[in-house]
Amino acid sequence: MEARHKLVVAARVVKINEHEKNFTKRLVREAQQRTGGAVKVLLVDRGFIDGVLLWWLGKKMGIRFVIPARSNMEVSQDIRGFRSEKADWQRVFWEETKEVKVLGVRGLLSYDQFGEEGHKKRRGRKDFKANPINGVMVVRWEGKEYEPGEEKVFLTILPVSRPLRVLEQYDLRSEVENQGFRELKQDYHLLKYPQKTGSAVRAHAVLTLIIYSLVNAYKSQRGQRLAHLGIRRWRGKQMGQSIHKMIVYYEGIYGIVDVEELFYLIDMTPQELYRLKIKRFQRELE
Description:
The chain is an alpha+beta fold. The chain has helices at 24-35, 51-60, 74-80, 163-186, 198-219, 221-229, 231-239, 259-265, 270-275, 278-285, and strands spanning 41-43, 64-68, 92-96, 101-108, 133-141, 144-145, 152-156, 245-250, 253-258. The chain has ten helices and nine strands. The chain is globular and about 70 Å long.
């Protein structure tokens, strides 16, 4: 789900006992394909914590991430050891307001799972080299100081020289939970499927996500302009007054062209095209 406008860009219906991280790569690829590679940062919950998966996101896909670390992880204990450190503005960074105090540490080396498949197994070898990852630790939240060992820790490959910005970015995740998932379940009746069959549940879930995204799209500034303009005026503005338009599909790509443009592209006059049989025309395009 796109965090700011609450648009669902990729989804998959699976059984409840399936772990979400088993489908992350497929969903990310689908989202990148549908958005033209617009996915730059993923804000994910603790259920997706997996060093190999996070490495794939950052190094293979070029997608930065922010994810909460588990309290018992070695990397969590590592960054908590910096609580008494002062900022050197090279590796250790502090930012605070009256309500929030955040520590950022660059280049933590204690997350030995962060790497390619089998990376952790090489830990005991002399040539083992840990991959650095950045961390953000929340020491104060809403004016309340966390006791040592109870601080909230986040892992990221985003720059942490301004750790408060990383925390503010992850706060969009709470909006997805509160205004996205909760609204889908309660107000859009996502869980009230028409029949207890796999196909019915799947169809109901997909249709609900489409309607939810469509409604939120019209809430955006661009959507409001379109709604105000009206579909007939918008169609006339976008397509012109000409009705001689064609939608051409080719291997998952499509374009809207004028009929004359199509003739020009295939180097034929309308009379020549008219005389061609369908099968011959298909062979010419191939």
